[in-house]
Amino acid sequence: METRQVLRPLGSLKHTTPSSAVTPVFRSVASRRHQSTTSRTKKALKLPPHPDFLTPQSGQNHVIFNPPAAAPSVYHTPFKFLPKSDPRRQANLSQLLRSSSDLHTSSRSTELPPPMSKLEMRERKYNVTKEQVEEMRQLRAADPATWSVLKLAEKFNCRPYFVMICCKASPEHKEMENKRLEDIKSRWGTIRTKAREERQKRKELLLRGAL
Amino acid sequence: MKRIRIGQLSRQWLATTPARSPTTTTATTTASRVSILLLLSRPAPAPTALHAQIRCQSTTTAITPEAIFDEPESKESKEPPEESASSHQANSPLPSPHPDKALRSAKLASLHARLSLSSKIPLPTLARALVDPSADAHPYFNNANLAYVGASRLQYHTSEWLVTRYPRLPMDIIFAAMKSFAGEPALHRVARSWGVEAAGAPGEEVDPGYLQFAKDKPSVMMHKWGYARAEAKELVKYKWRRGMSSRVVFDDPFGNTIPPKKTNEVEVSDARNTKELLMEDAEKNAHANFVRAVIGAIYLHCGSDTTKTFVKSHILSRQLDLSNLFEFDLPERELTRLCDRENFDPPVARLLSETGRLSRTPVYVVGIYSGRDKLSEAAGANLLVAKRAAAINALKAWYLYSPGHVGLPSDTFAEDAAPWKPAYVDIGEIIS
Amino acid sequence: MTVRALERISVGQNGLGAFILQCKKMDIHYCDQSGSSRGMNAFIKSQLSKFASLHPQIEFAVSPRPRKHPVLIGHYINGKQKSICVKNMDSLQVLKKAELLRDASGEKTKRVNKPITSINESVRGVWSPYHGKGMPV
Amino acid sequence: MRRIPRLRRPSGLPSTTTNVSRTTIQIQCRHPSCQRQRPTVTTFSTTFSPPSLNRLYSSDRQQTPASSSAPAQEQIQELQPRVADEIISAETGESLDWADEGLTAAREGPYGAPPQRVEAARENDVADPSYLPATTAEGLRKVGGLADWWYRPDNWDVTGDFISFRPREKVVDPVLIEAAVRRAVVEALALREVGSDDELVAVWPMAMSKSDLLGLLNWDVKGTEDGRVTLGGDPSAVAEGLRWKDEDTSAGSDDLAETLTSEEVSALAETWHPSWKTISLTDPRIRFAVTKRVFQLTGQLVPDHQLPSTTTVQALLRVLKKPPKSATLNEEIQKRHPDLLELPNVTVAAKRVTRGDKEKALGRFKIMQEEFKKRDIPGLGHGYARKGKEVRRLKGGT
Known about the structure:
The structure holds 4 protein chains of 4 kinds. By secondary structure, chain A is mainly alpha-helical. In chain A, 49% of the residues lie in helices and 0% in strands. The longest helix of chain A has 19 residues, at 87-105. By secondary structure, chain B is mainly alpha-helical. In chain B, helix 6 crosses helix 12 (282-302) and helix 7 runs parallel beside helix 8 (184-193). The longest helix of chain B is centred in the middle third of the chain and has 22 residues, at 144-165. The two termini of chain B are 30 Å apart. Chain C is built from 3 helices and 5 strands. Chain C is an alpha+beta fold. Chain C has a domain at 23-103: 3-Layer(aba) Sandwich (Glutaredoxin). Classes of the chains: A mainly alpha, B mainly alpha, C alpha+beta, D mainly alpha. At the B-C interface, helix 4, helix 7, helix 8, helix 13 and strand 1 of B face strand 1 and strand 3 of C. Strand 3 of chain C pairs parallel with strand 3 of chain D.
């Protein structure tokens, strides 16, 4: 991605040359024939080439790098992931220095997109001490019903996820929770259960990268 | 590879006959060398019209005839294995076509030319490569030995190419990639693409150009380099977990466990075939063994660099999208552990663009940034899915790093090879 | 948390790395008595040995098929067959038909609309609406 | 050299010249095929009489044997001469004296007639009182019968065989053909020299001793540019030789002399002056005489469409010496195109490759046989299954 940004300005310079190409004349829609066969579509799409592809008056040819807006391929390793010994890293370093220097000067001209959610930027507080963890576990073990995860998180001012990491509810409690969930699910109709199954399948597909 | 201790290995390689007969072998050096002698010194064939075929070949090994005949008459090889010293009338039909019939088979000659094999590889060797151990249990006339040699060369070239081309691949992915290039299903397709047809049933009258194997008879699974684990039985019974590093040491190049061996016989021998496990798919195994046998024959007759070009042009030229092999469990956590290990800035998911947030089908494009650098981006129906997809893409981008066309270790075998430039070796996958 | 692997099989493309001629066998049937097979007999006598030596990877099976028109049957690696009746043709026409069978692959003849048929991902990437700068409306 | 039978005149051919009288044909059959041993034929009555009709009725109607047999008898009498005339008129030979067999019974024409029907005595005619006619067939011995009489070769005499104008086997050896052509040319030109042109179209006897033949072949025949031909010997002797003679040449001496081995002829061929091949055959009578003679001597017929083009002896030789066209392409390939057979990727089959052959090559045939045996279906062929209805209907079956 990094390399694409850097080269982008080069590409855009080209567009400024006056595009003298004749804009394709559009026949009125009524008289246009259906593009029902390959040959007709090909004939309809036969547009004059973009000026970039015409050799300029100066005669020397040039490289056009104008990739479509596409999802970056996983085979193009980001610059940061390149190992130190990789030749591409050395080649790119000089350009990086030049671009990073003007970054500071132009007060962070390329603003980073906003974080996906506030959660992303939270600071980890690490404020729970060991004793508190012990206490949390006892409370949880003693009375899982009243001391739910959210209550404990509120009490110790930490993330519920952290509470779940620290203490495990007793099997009976888990058993009861599962039964409760089963009851809820049994009340679902076919549409909802199917939707939930689909969602589960989509999750697996996503993990396999097949979504 | 096979569970063969080094000591036993040399004996197996040297032994030209079933290992159980304690014979001293003088001239032959490798099991595959037998096939050279097999071909050079084949006596003039009895006219094929003669029903009784004499399939004997003279080997210079001083094999005492008694050692041969005291062997229990195994059901498969109806005719006792002959030696030049004792060629006697075998009235039962031969299990596979007579080796000299290969010289007259047009199908075989056309297959030989289709693979553009060099003329150094004689037709009887190719005919032998087409005979599966299930069709003819006699080790001199089936392709077990050739396939074994071929398998080791093939797996060497494939693994070497994979590891140097994609150094950061996790071990499981390397096993899967090895299987998809040099495994049975792939080699089955390669054999079919060469135009090899399977014979209906093995027999003497079959055209040597067909691949002969029997579905009901045991064949020889190419147990690649690997050892049967002590706890092999329990693994199968209780489905214990096998650690990844233990697979590297014990299992075969495709990560499969070697089934517990029944007897301590040599892997590829005449008597051994009777107890071999029945294939679940004999056809695929036969086709795969044929491809390995061809590679073995090339190595035997033309040397290692011809083998390398053959493997490169026929097997490694096949295309596989490695990014389809990955299946992640918790990609976000793995990515944070990665950045932590590489002491990059912790990954932050940033929303690049979105559309249709209030519509029925919103699309969020999330990019993952480590500090100021964007690692990857992905689109999803909701924020969490988009973030997970982006994390998966980032991990793939990390694992699928490739230093490009760097030199392979086997290049240095050539005389005029350039000095070896060390390839990039990665620290390894993120194991939490 | 480690990565698990999925089972995939690599895809081979004829001609990439190694080219395998698709026609693997050619049956040549002639008739001694019938007049329509005169050209085919001439082809067998004159052209076939040169043609067969040029293509060692094709197996030629010459056999009489009495009381039938002469025919060339090409067997292909994908298991299909193509047969051309060469009745009343002279040897050069038969040679042209044999070359036609040699060059054909087993697939049915299909119109090719796109100049390139490839299974590689496109190097430049395929445009997708969600990436890049977005469409200036 | 193949033995050319010295036939005085082909029997089947009505001789074209009127003056040749129908002299008796001295048949000295030298033909190897007819040198069969004659089994000693039992003497039997020579008169051919059709099977007598009097015993046609079953035995219970015997009481009127006299009446029924009498008319039958006249019938036979009256039948007999007509039949005999027919047969005799076809053949001109009268009773032939078989010099070597000493067969006393004279034959009626070229075949031996079956013996006269012998009837067993009637029950009441038998003198011995203890005779009891058999009522059932056991124990009786089958005697005689005319079942295969006409198929036994010894009942047929060689005289009946057809003596053809051309020899039985064709001469294929090119050297012999050349000798025959040279002999024909010399004879024709000799006749032309002697001036008896009408002899050219007659049938010439082939009888000629080996020495004369060698002498004839040694003539120094030269064809000059302007078409004149100089013969090396005196034509009148040859012309004389070509006339049918009546003397009875003894059989023994000639049959060995005839054989000319190809070595002798090829030795002779070198001595011939090459220009004899330029002798022109444009004159139709000469050309007809030569081709006729060559056909008589060697059996090689110049095809009609090539006759006009054979203007010189060389052309004639080229036409005659061409090897016979091979019947099947497979034969042709083996003879003329062996390189096709050496190619490793070519198999040439002599016969049609059937489904069975393909299954055998695939190894499936033996499995099919086992399956057939299990279902007790015959392994090969239809076995009990009748041919398809369509086939029977096509062939007009009900």
